[in-house]
Amino acid sequence: MLDDPGGMGIYWHIEYTRTPERIGPIFREEDRTLTDLRSALAARLIADGAMGTQLQALGGAVDCPEMWNVERSDAVRDIHRRYVDAGARIILTNTFGGSEWKLARAGHAADQESLCRAAAENALEAAGDRAFVLADVGPTGELPQPYGTHAVDEFESVFARQVELLASAGVHGVLIETMASSAEAAAAVRAAKRACDLPVVASLTYSAGRQGYRTMMGETVGQCTEAVLEAGADVVGSNCGLGIGQMADVIREVRAVAQGPVLAKPNAGQPKLVDGETVFDEDADTWARRTPGLAEAGATIIGGCCGTTPDHIARAADMLEETD
Ligand SMILES: [Zn+2]
User: Fold this and answer.
1) Domains in the chain, start-ordered, CATH in brackets?
2) Scanning 12, 20, 135, 313, which has the fewest C-beta atoms within 10 Å of its C-beta?
C-alpha cells in the first residue's frame, strides 16, 4: 500500500459508496444549448466533483448513499446545485452503487427502481437547463470469470437494467466510472449501448506502481482504453486513484490511443488518515492551479473525484477559462 498510494483512493471511493489540438471555445459557455450532449462533447466541458465526499460531510449513509436520493433528496439536490453553480456542465446521478448486485449487499435490491428514478429526478431538477446529467454507473463489486463467479453476460444484464432505469428517467448520457477491470468496463459499455441511444463515457481507475500506471487487475492504460473503445464507448478517460499530477500522465497514455473526447476526474491529491478520518491533501487552489495540465495532456472533460468539492470545481472553471 505504501508504494501504491493511489490504491487507497479507489479503495476509499468504492468502500465509502459501498496536447492534442485545443478543442472548442471555452468550458463555460453560458448560451450553449443543452439539447444535444453529443455535439457539446466536441467542446471542452467542466464536470462535477465528488458526491461521496459531500454526502459524508453531511453525515450521509455509508452503507447505501443511494438511499439519500429518496430519504434526503433535498441534500442531494443541493450538492448537485452547488456543482452546477460552480460551473459544472456535466453532473452525475447519485447512483455509483446503483447496480442490483451492489444494492443487494446493502439490503436495498428491491428499491433499485425507485432509487434510480429519484436519482435522475434530483439531478435533472438541479441541472435545469444549465447542465447535462449523466447516469453514474460504478463497479458491481464482483469480478468477471475467471477471477469471479459471474459470467460476462450476467454483468451485462445487471448493467443494462441500471442504465435502462436511468435512461427512461430522462438522463442525457451514461458515465461508467471507477472501473478496475477492462472486462467489467467493456461489459458495462456494451450493456449501456444496448440499453439506450445516449452517449456513453467509460472511465477507469489506475494506480502508480513500479511498472507504471495499472488497474488493480494489472492492466495498462492503453489496454483498457482500447477495450472500452472497441466496446463502443463515445468518450474514454480516467477517474479516482490519483491526484492531478499523475492523472495528467495517465491522460497522455489515454490520448495515445483515443481520438475523441477524453474525461479526467482526479482526486484532490492523496488520501491520508488523520485522526481516523480520510483527508485529501490538495486544497481547492492547489488542485485547480494544476487543471490546465490536464487539458494540455489531452483531457476535454475535466472534473474531480474523491476529496474534491464545489470550491475545487469553481476554481478549476476560472483557471481553465483564463488559460483557454
Ligand atoms: Zn473517487
Assistant:
1) 5-323 (3.20.20.330)
2) 20
